[in-house]
Design brief:
Oligomer: single chain
Largest sheet: none
Shape: globular
Structural class: mainly alpha
């Protein structure tokens, strides 16, 4: 019964992040309320999972390693918080603490659940994510006006002008989403879910899991996130052989060269080089204190005075980490999310995850800390064909 309660709490947290963690909810009730509700359930999940472990101090080496890393990251974030004038609100802190507690809880769950229950949990996660991503895609294509009323404002108006003039009309279907980011952020969720479905389909050989994989790949394509589409294709090819992976990389490179205009349209690729230049300018102008522990979670990354570079804000995961939490926590973050033991496919996934992180990835998004450990749960070589 206890495992059922744990899984129920976890799935509740997933649904909260996909529903209450949306622009539509925050536009009416505010982001802070979502962070409070989410933290309440995450902390309850954490206490429920770790109560016996703390009581008997029964931790394995992986759990201890991740606990130590999370403690250090939170310590440096709090240090930066107070040394920067306590400018960070509680909501910002909870938005970072919740994913870390969730990651630790899922680590414990990975070692406490039988193999068939892990598969069952992953299957339920995929069903829920697929349903919500399908709703997101339908709303993005069918009701951009509804979404724009909550989110976009002047940006939607400029995109509407682009569409009416026939210039870059498809961007109107990229920028609007009821989730907390545009379709590039949705592409991250879809890629992670698609990768989880691939590991699960190999593990079970059950036909319905392959159907979910197909649905999720279609949803990746519908995000129009070119980086997410590319890494999803490479992830799919990695489930065949190393030769196919190498061949697919060559084909993708040729396709990219041929479709260069599409990929850089609107300055999408060019802006990444601009972000790199601005990051270099920031590193060269910032003091050692800011570089080591960051400017603080709520420091305005758009502020030219703070960054030393106009238009500093970019999609890069490393930019968010270096600016907000500094090099120390950025390194610890990478150590936390990289598993200690990896198969070839998991190596490919981790590589593609960081490639996507150089396109668009907010490092403290709950979906990263939800789906990454789920992928690790399903990446071992134990086969489960029956059991649920």
């Amino acid at each position: 019964m206890s495992n059922n309660i744990k899984m129920g709490l976890f799935l509740t947290i997933l649904i909260i992040n996909l529903s209450l963690g949306s622009y539509l909810f925050s536009a009416v009730y505010g982001e802070y309320l979502f962070q409070l509700i989410n933290f309440f359930f995450v902390f309850s999940f954490f206490v429920f999972v770790y109560f016996e472990k703390f009581y008997f101090f029964s931790f394995n080496s992986v759990e201890l390693k991740r606990f130590f890393i999370v403690f250090l990251i939170v310590f440096f974030i709090v240090l930066s918080w107070f040394l920067n004038g306590a400018d960070n609100g509680v909501g910002y802190f909870l938005s970072v603490l919740s994913p870390f507690l969730l990651f630790l809880s899922l680590t414990a769950l990975e070692y406490s659940l039988p193999e068939n229950e892990r598969v069952m949990l992953a299957y339920r996660v995929l069903i829920i994510v697929t349903v919500f991503l399908s709703i997101e895609a339908v709303l993005r294509f069918s009701s951009p006006e509804l979404l724009a009323a909550y989110i976009a404002g002047a940006k939607y108006e400029s995109l509407s002008n682009m569409q009416s003039s026939g210039e870059g009309g498809f961007y109107i279907y990229k920028i609007l989403s009821f989730l907390r980011f545009d379709s590039n952020g949705v592409g991250v969720i879809a890629f992670l879910a698609f990768s989880l479905s691939l590991f699960l389909s190999i593990k079970t050989k059950i036909k319905k899991h392959k159907i979910i994989s197909l649905c999720l790949f279609i949803l990746v394509v519908l995000t129009f996130s070119r980086a997410a589409i590319l890494v999803s294709m490479l992830m799919l090819f990695s489930f065949f052989s190393i030769r196919i992976v190498i061949f697919s990389i060559l084909i993708s490179t040729l396709a990219f060269s041929w479709a260069y205009g599409f990929f850089v349209y609107g300055g999408s690729l060019e802006s990444k080089f601009e972000v790199y230049n601005n990051l270099v300018n920031y590193i060269s102008s910032a003091d050692m204190f800011d570089l080591l522990i960051g400017k603080g979670l709520s420091s305005d990354i758009f502020d030219t005075y703070n960054t030393g570079a106009e238009g500093f804000f970019g999609h890069w995961m490393i930019v968010f980490l270096i600016y907000h939490v500094g090099f120390i926590s950025a390194l610890l973050y990478c150590l936390l999310i990289i598993p200690m033991r990896m198969s070839f496919r998991l190596y490919v996934f981790i590589f593609l995850f960081f490639v996507l992180g150089f396109s668009y990835l907010r490092p403290f998004e709950p979906f990263v800390f939800i789906l990454l450990p789920m992928i690790y749960m399903c990446s071992n070589n134990k086969r489960v064909v029956h059991g649920f």
